[in-house]
Amino acid sequence: xxxxxxxxxxxxxxxxxxxxxxxxxxxxxxxxxxxxxxxxxxxxxxxxxxxxxxxxxxxxxxxxxxxxxxxxxxxxxxxxxxxxxxxxxxxxxxxxxxxxx
Length: 101
Fold this sequence. Notes:
Elements: H1 3-6, E1 14-17, H2 35-60, E2 67-70, H3 84-98
Parallel strand pairs: 1-2
Helix pairs in contact: 2-3
């Protein structure tokens, strides 16, 4: 299901992107994380936020109204030992949120 089918164009004022739960909480040492796991997590959190934000903004910008919210985590503000797998995509989603129209 896409943002286009879940959120009809009429009257939408708030959209929230929340990829949460254990599916995104990738912990581990940089020496032990696999590139595949990190990329999968980045796709869920960061690239997913991009696609969602773009689809929703296409309807909100012409109306000059609306709020797009990307949920975060402490890791989106600062990394830490064993948190590279979640900090990288959460930093990216936070930067995206700060860079919208």
